[in-house]
Amino acid sequence: MNMLKKSNRTTCAFTLIELLVVIAIIAVLVALLLPAIGNAKERANRIKCNGNLRSWGQAYVIYLVDSQGVFPTQGSGPGAGWAADPMDPEKSSDAWFNVLPQLIGGRTYSQLQQEEASPRPGDKSLFICPSVMKEDFPPPTDPMTYYANYAQNLWLEQSDNAKLYGLSVKLRLDQVRNPSLLVLMAEQATGQAVHGSGPLPSYRYGHTHVLYTAEVKNDRGDGFRHGDRDGCNILFSDGHTDYFKKDQIYDSGEVNDKYDNYGGLIWNPGRDEFNEEYN
């Protein structure tokens, strides 16, 4: 008796063509999904970045109460092209990057430098925007070099405030006529084209202050890193934050004599086109 019986089952298998079709479909789906995933990640980073600015806003509120309404300094050195050395207590003890963090339980910039933990791209830090990429903004190799992705509006501390507009050099909150429009802090232009020398940090890796329409000097538009490098978050003196497209707040050249209040935002409180007496 033959113990071997022929099976009536047929073997099911994909043909080569069918496999290629499945692979092609998967590839198309991946290609369609990747941009959506990337956009979702960027939206999440933009929200986190906005959260950083909200935290800075909380620190400003506490500081203004303690200082009787006087805004902190930019941390600027004596010249227009320099950032104050965060390690120099004489020049930076009252700078925003040293006085604000400790008000919300953070480390001052000088403390971070002393601990050799200066903020760098990729760090979870109030100084760093989550969207900044190391390949786009290579971090300085010197651990003492200043680096941050946010900066204070330079007009909060300007000699022109007193000379030209009758305001105090260090702006006071009671001098702000439009709190919802006056910029306190913004994602900053990194100023890649500007280099310093000597003991003070170079602006190559970050300003301590910012004025968008006048300070962005290169074609990359550094500082506009959201929405495919087309927008940024801004903190205002009434504590709210908002997102702006690049063309809403930035012009590659000076916008006549009101360039520093371009787009309806107030960077320069003295030149306030929303108040007739300042025209």
Describe the structure.
- The chain is α+β, with helices and mostly antiparallel strands.
- The chain has one domain (19-278).
- Helix content is 29%, strand content 8%.
- It contains seven helices and five strands, in the order ααααβαββαββα.
- The protein has helices at 16-66, 89-92, 96-99, 109-114, 159-165, 212-215, 246-249, and strands at 150-153, 183-187, 209-210, 231-236, 241-245.
- A five-stranded mixed sheet has the order 3-1-2-4-5.
- The longest helix is centred in the N-terminal third of the chain and has 51 residues, at 16-66.
- It is elongated, with a radius of gyration of 26 Å.
- The protein starts with 15 loop residues before the first helix and ends in a 30-residue tail after the last helix.
- The relative contact order is 0.13.
- The model is unreliable at 77-82, 191-203, 214-220 and 275-279 (pLDDT under 50).
**Percentage of helical residues?**
25-40%
Describe the sheet with the most strands: 5 strands, mixed
Unreliable runs, pLDDT <50, ≥5 residues? 77-82, 191-203, 214-220, 275-279
Global mean pLDDT: 76
Query: What structural category do the secondary elements indicate?
Result: alpha+beta
Percent strand equals 5-15%
The strand order across the widest sheet is: 3-1-2-4-5
